[in-house]
Design goal:
There is one protein chain. By secondary structure, the chain is an alpha/beta fold. The chain folds into two domains: about 100 residues, Enolase-like, domain 1 (2-Layer Sandwich), CATH 3.30.390.10; about 210 residues, TIM Barrel, CATH 3.20.20.120. About 35% of the residues lie in helices and about 25% in strands. The strands form four sheets. Strands 7-8-9-10-11-12-13-14 form an eight-stranded parallel β-sheet. A three-stranded antiparallel β-sheet has the order 1-4-5. Helix 3 crosses helix 4, helix 5 packs parallel to helix 6 and helix 6 runs parallel beside helix 7. The chain starts with a strand and ends with a strand. The relative contact order is 0.15.
């Protein structure tokens, strides 16, 4: 007997919200899926974003329609019969967990067995600083000095140099990532280069708009560029080479762990380094990304830390800037 549940859920973001160059978010609005088959169950979650033309209502309807059409609950079939995106991500995660439960294994045990990983390792993560006044961002940075990296949101408003200088002064040994969320121009990018170099910036994420990033091709820049908005699924990877040095793989865009594992392999083949990122979400979204991030070059999986409260049944522990699988911690 198969049963399912599809719900829109809201998780408030801590503090004054989370600000990037495009918007301020005060809640993480997610679509939750639960699949039940013969007494076993699996759960998944996704975060639809208006930047990619999704709403929670449209994604919940897409998932519900797919389930009502009585498709088999099989990940290979899912990859072949639903487009990449958040709906497929939620279903893919639920199917991974359902299959694990049916085999009497935890998600970690099942994933490890599939990919010959003897033990899921704890991982360091970046912590992302919401865009704000320089002194406020510096104070938040100092309070999170235990993290492997700090990621600074750039706003493109003329204050980014001051933000970076203040943060670097607060945590002078910390490696910084910067994320423009498409807010810069080729001219402002070049103007900020000496600021980046003076303030220990090691990565520059999506400096230019997705449809204007050809200006990066062949640019001899001393700091690697990371593709985020320009990197959705495996078909995008070929276009990144020559413009970016790092691919940021996010499961909401890739459409789940099953596809993202192929993306990770293909990115390596193309000579790209790999970052595993996330949306502001609960640890239910972060869990499959955490498995994907094993042996990644850069890890940015702090989404659950941005919330006032994670899910009560969270299977990840965040301690001292590190993430551990709770059932094996």
């Amino acid at each position: 007997m198969n049963n399912y549940k599809v719900e829109i859920q809201r998780f408030p973001i801590a503090g004054d919200g989370f600000t990037i160059s495009r918007e301020t978010k005060r809640d993480a609005d997610v679509v939750y899926v639960r699949l039940e088959r013969n007494g076993f169950s699996g759960e998944g979650e996704c975060v639809p974003l208006k930047r990619y033309h999704y709403t929670t209502q449209s994604v919940a309807a897409e998932i519900t329609t797919w389930l009502e059409e009585n498709h088999p609950w099989d990940r290979v079939h899912l990859m072949q019969n639903m487009k990449a995106g958040p709906a497929r991500f939620a279903l893919d995660t639920a199917m991974w967990q359902l299959e694990a439960a049916e085999q009497g294994k935890t998600f970690a045990q099942f994933f490890g067995g599939q990919y010959s990983i003897e033990k899921i390792q704890s991982l360091p993560t970046a912590f992302t600083l919401s865009g704000a006044a320089p002194e406020k961002m510096a104070a938040v940075a100092k309070a999170h000095g235990e993290f492997r990296w700090l990621k600074t949101k750039l706003m493109g408003d003329g204050l980014d140099a001051e933000r970076l200088a203040a943060i670097h002064h607060a945590v002078p040994e910390m490696e910084l990532m910067v994320d423009a969320n498409e807010a810069l121009t080729p001219e402002t990018l070049q103007a900020l280069l000496p600021i980046f170099q003076q303030n220990n910036v090691v990565l520059i994420e999506q400096p230019l708009p997705e449809n204007n990033d050809e200006a990066l091709r062949g640019l001899n820049f001393p700091i690697p560029f990371v593709a985020d908005e320009s990197c959705h699924d495996i078909l995008d990877l070929e276009k990144l080479a020559g413009k970016y040095q790092v691919a940021n793989i996010k499961l909401d865009k890739a459409g789940g762990l099953t596809h993202a594992l192929l993306m990770k392999q293909r990115a390596r083949e193309l000579g790209l380094q790999v970052m595993i990122g996330c949306m502001a979400s609960t640890s239910l979204s972060i869990l499959p990304a955490f498995f994907l991030a094993q042996q990644a070059d850069f890890i940015d999986l702090d989404g659950a830390l941005l919330l006032e409260q994670d899910r009560r049944e969270a299977k990840l522990n965040y301690t001292g800037g590190w993430i551990a699988y709770a059932e094996e911690a």
